[in-house]
Automatic annotation (TrEMBL):
BP term (GO), one: negative regulation of bacterial-type flagellum-dependent cell motility
Location (main, coarse): membrane
Protein name, UniProt field: Diguanylate cyclase DosC
Any Gene Ontology CC annotation: plasma membrane
Necessary cofactors: heme; Mg(2+)
Top-level taxon in the UniProt lineage: Bacteria
Organism whose genome encodes this protein: Azotobacter chroococcum NCIMB 8003
Main EC class the enzyme belongs to: transferase
EC numbers: 2.7.7.65
Catalysed reaction, written as an equation: 2 GTP = 3',3'-c-di-GMP + 2 diphosphate
PANTHER family registered for this protein in UniProt: DIGUANYLATE CYCLASE DGCM-RELATED, REGULATORY COMPONENTS OF SENSORY TRANSDUCTION SYSTEM
Amino acid sequence: MPSTSPEQQAAAEWKLLLAQFPAPVAAQVRELATTHQAELAGYFYEQMLQDEQAMLFLTHEQVKSRLHGTLQQWIVSLFSSTGDETALLALITQQKQIGEIHARIKIPIHLVLRGARHLRERLFELLCRQPLDTEHKLFGQRLIGETIDLAMEIMSRAFSDANDRNSRSEEGYRLFSVAQHIGVEQERQRSALLDWENQLMFDLAVGQLAAQLPRLSGSEFGLWFRHKGAHAFQGSRETELILQSMQHIDEVLLPLFEKAVAEPNVEQRLHNLRTLREQAKGIVFHLDNLFEQANVLESGRDVLTRMLNRKFLPVILAKEVAYARQSERTFAVLAVDIDHFKQINDEFGHEAGDLVLQQLATLLSNHCRGGDYVFRMGGEEFLVLLVDVHQGQALGVAEKLRQQAEKERFRLSGEHDLQLTVSIGLALHDGHPDYQRLLRQADRALYEAKHGGRNRVVLARELPG
Ligand SMILES: Nc1nc2c(ncn2[C@@H]2O[C@H](COP(=O)(O)OP(=O)(O)OP(=O)(O)O)[C@@H](O)[C@H]2O)c(=O)[nH]1
């Protein structure tokens, strides 16, 4: 039996819903929504602006000017379906996309539901004013209510799916950002733990008093784990086990040696030592597991250039959008693309092309500040995110990068080197909550740079959406 997609299922439900209502009722509601679309959108906006949280999202000029139009279209489309499957599927896709946008710009779901409630209220009021009999009005109310509910259900589902994906990605990024050089850190912490153990064994051998024995939580390893490791690996079972072991060693096992010194009982002392070693070994075991899990997350970097890949782009952009909103600072994205890269591959071979990509990646990151980001978007395209810049500074950096790339002699294997140029599309964040728009602007500007003759920087012009 062919399986039905969630969209097909929703379309079937929507169709059933429509079938419950007499055609004249549906036509009446449709006409109501079409005639009053502007007023309904205005009412929605007015209500939502009374909410402080909603204001954050709605006061942006672009949102303000576009929202009325989009909202009107949405209201009309919601009630214009006659049950045709293709049209219903398109309507459902639209609800899903809206849910995904809400998740991307982080609009809390309760605000969306509140907006829907206001719309429903207003539509009910308008319906009541119509010269219709009571039964007709009741049918109309039900149709309005159930249609909006179904649309909200589809939207919310898309919202929570997208939100889950974002949270997983954010979680991954948190881990990734703290433990950037995972292999090195792992070795350092393993040996710090060993140092503590050696010191402890020595102190025990020379008969140091228990109170003076080195506590694990205060050791180099203990400090690192409590302050950084536990945060980086937050939420995993191993983290809890390591913290428990540390506490057990410091508070239960080490004090046992006091007694052993006062009353030398070799058997007991050996037993305590073995328990201590077991605990320390357990910590190493859990630590290795944690690092192994973190290693998987290293895939956030592009294997060839070691720059960030697309994986964390949504998380980082959403974070920068939120930061820009709070701090009233702007950031910029540069879409950087090597000109005629195919010719380099064709003339010198794919390996030479790879070497060029690596060197360009290094050049880009060397000429950015510590807070900026360089992503390899795929192929010969990079994305540079410049934090805390205004337009003039961003243009300056973009131009500097273009010139540096033009000046650079890219080494190939053997004695050869080559020169190349890059085209750059620059877009400045203007406060709009949806970062996809910014990426589209940068891409469009890059396209213009290519078509304008390459080896240039083009600043994105205001785009319609
Ligand atoms: N060596 C190497 N080549 C790659 C890699 N990824 C993509 N490419 C090549 O990059 C080339 C991109 O070519 P095009 O998209 O035609 O663009 P272009 O030649 O740079 O031309 P313009 O961008 O229009 O200036 C293709 O030949 C791809 O095969 C890679 O990882 N290594």
